[in-house]
Structure to design on (267 residues):
């Protein structure tokens, strides 16, 4: 994909994509000029806010290692975004060779790129889907082919719930999956935590203005996501501090306070 310019609007890229902006902030090349401009806003106007993306990715990788260390060999990655330098199936297979992964995203460009780059064997699939429609996801042929729900599954909801509004039942999709999971399954969630400071307001207003969506969730909403599950490690904490063994991570910056994560097991 890379650095496109004159064709951005003609190819439908009149607005930045959060997935492609995330790619830019992580040092990738699979984004358009309009995504890079959006990313530079965070780097320059909101200096330091790019650490949100970096610490979020770090926590996700630790969570994948934790659930595969527990023997989980099948994972669904909701809102997967563009391929990274180290993808979920690659991280999982370091501990559990042959791990099966279904990547889901609602951005057709992300999906087509992922299908071209990631589907290199029969144990990986990239599917276009909406996290708000879990029943359709569960019935999708690729999900049924790769995921057996009578065995433990690892579910990854990295940031994706931050783009479901509070009044649109952001925890509903997660609770649907919790009900159908076998004991021994894991649920990982990272999301933006609501705050009452100027930095939070600036970031949220900019995301809403450009993408027409985005929500920072309350501590009560985040806690409800994990209700009835056994929390792993320190519970829900800023991503930069999340460690599966509960050991303390570095003190979060003001920006890193805005994104939290947690991993829980269904017993």
């Amino acid at each position: 994909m890379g650095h496109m310019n004159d064709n951005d609007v003609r190819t439908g890229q009149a607005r930045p994509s959060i997935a492609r902006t995330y790619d830019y902030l992580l040092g990738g090349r699979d984004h358009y000029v309009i995504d890079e401009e959006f990313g530079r806003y965070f780097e320059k106007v909101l200096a330091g806010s790019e650490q949100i993306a970096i610490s979020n990715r770090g926590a996700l990788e630790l969570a994948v290692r934790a659930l595969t260390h527990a023997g989980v060999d099948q994972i669904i990655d909701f809102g997967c975004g563009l391929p990274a330098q180290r993808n979920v199936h690659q991280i999982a297979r370091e501990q559990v060779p042959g791990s099966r992964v279904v990547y889901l995203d609602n951005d057709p460009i992300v999906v087509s790129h992922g299908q071209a780059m990631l589907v290199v064997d029969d144990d990986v699939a990239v599917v276009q889907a909406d996290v708000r429609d879990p029943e359709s996801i569960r019935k999708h042929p690729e999900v049924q082919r790769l995921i057996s729900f009578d065995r433990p599954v690892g579910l990854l909801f990295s940031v994706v719930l931050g783009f479901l509004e509070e009044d649109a039942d952001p925890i509903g999709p997660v609770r649907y999956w919790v009900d159908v999971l076998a004991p021994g399954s894991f649920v990982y969630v990272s999301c933006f935590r609501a705050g009452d400071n100027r930095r939070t307001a600036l970031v949220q207003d900019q995301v809403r203005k450009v993408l027409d969506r985005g929500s920072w969730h309350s501590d009560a909403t985040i806690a409800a996501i994990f209700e009835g599950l056994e929390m792993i490690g320190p519970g829900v904490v800023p991503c930069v501090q999340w460690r599966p063994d509960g050991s303390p991570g570095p003190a979060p910056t003001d920006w890193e306070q805005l994104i939290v994560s947690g991993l829980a097991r269904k017993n």
